[in-house]
Each structure stands twice: as C-alpha cells, then as structure tokens.
# Entry
Amino acid sequence: MPTEEPRRSDRIVVELPIAISGVDASGEAFLEHSVTVVLGRHGAKIAIPRMLAPDQEVNIRCLGSAKESDARVVGQLGNGPEGYYYGVELLDNGADFWDIEFPPIVESDAAVGRVLLGCMRCQTRELAYLNEFQTEVLEANQELWRRCKKCSDTTLWRKTNLPPTAESSVQLPLVPPTTQSRRTQNDRKHVRLELKVPVCIRHPQYGGEDLVMTENVSRGGFRFKSRRHYGQDWVLEVAMPYSRGSANIFTAAQVVYVGELPAEGLAVYGSAYVPGSKVRHPH
# Structure
C-alpha cells in the first residue's frame, strides 16, 4: 500500500545566504555563514560544516532580508562539499521569512508549470503556478505580464533566483519552442498543449538528474521521452519548466504510461501530477 505524507508547500532549489548560530553536537557555540540548498515556506535544507543533533534548536538569519527565526533540526540529510546537510523547520511561522510569496498549495492542482518569478518593478519574488498558456508565453519570451500585489498593477515578471535587493534584473537566453505549438481538443480530462519545455527529473533509483523535453503538457501532467527506465506508478521529482543555474521548483509526478521506442533507443512516458497536498511513495 502507498504511504502518504503531507506537503505544505512546494520546494525551491535555490542557494540563499544565511547565518546559523547555536550550539553544535559537541557543545560548542558557533556562528556560521552558509546557504540554503532547498527551501519551502516552513523550512529548508541547509548546509553547515558542523554536526548538529536532531530536535535541537538553532537560529537562522536570512542575510538577504535580515529576518531571523529559531528553527528545529529535523534530521541529517547526508553531506557534501559544503559540509553536513540538515532539514530544519522554522519555529517562527511569520509571513515571508525568505522574502518569497508562496501561494496556497491547493492552487497547485491547476498548475502546468511551477517557477520562481521576480517582478521587474519592485523585485518581489513569488512562487508562481502557471497554466498552459502562461507556460507557453514564458518559454517563448522568458518573461510574463502578471498582477503584482505589491505594485497593485500588472507588471513584467521574469525567472529569478537573485535577492530582491539586486540591482540588475535576471537575463536568461531566449529559448524558442522547437516546434510551432498548437492546441488540441481530445477526450481527456485536460486540454493538451503540444509544447517543448525543459524538464528536470529525479528519482532515487538513479544518480544525477535526467534533463528531458516535454512532448506535450496539460494541467494534469506531461509526456516526455527518456533513455532511462522509469516503472509504471513510479513517483518522480520533477521541475517544469527547468532552467539550469536558476531557482527551480520540484514537485511530485507519477508515471501513468510507459511505451517503448526501440528505433530511437528511448522510452516515452506519460506522467500525472500528484494531486492535492499528498506525495505518494509506492513500495
């Protein structure tokens, strides 16, 4: 039987500078400057060159916003070049600790793409859920006109992972669609848009990331080709649209169709976003 875990917000893979202070596992007081590895509304995966104890409290200061919050160490998540990785939960659930607007997770059910956007007028950053048409416009132009709450106006937004105080806007190369997109009507639940969008796929079965292009997209999921083998009902971590070197939002998608393409040495997959606030892990 699958197990279910609540998901309170989507995760953003982005390095934000932080300062961490507290007492390490050996009882030594410390103050370290580090970065986030992954963050969400209520916590983050952080890197620190010290051993910490599960359930202990530390203080985190976001250097971009100068905001502070106590945090609980949930547990260790391995190690890397920056030191040890830990999952931490923010104890002060005040709004916008990361200076990023997080929409309610229930709104993700209607999303095709998930992306971190920045308002070019006020530099507000927001995790945006895009429908199929907004995704198409963003991929064609690398920018999008949308409503900004802070500006109380419709403004130009672009992909970003820079602090909101940065003076220069994010400049990304134009990536035109590889084919002329066209909308098709069929008997499926969601309209499919034939659009080539870069996707990053992760699964613990494989090391590294699988970078592919969509064959088509819809609000329910997307179709893609890959040289890797993914099994029926496997749950993947996917970021779509994906931009190398930018902040990327990963969410869960389940493989619902598998087809072989022997002539191309590839397999074709249909994936469906895991609905609501549940992430399912098949045994």
Summary: The first strand starts at residue 3 and ends at 6. The radius of gyration is 20 Å. Residues 233 and 255 are 5 Å apart (CA to CA). The chain has three domains: 17-90, 100-159, 183-281.
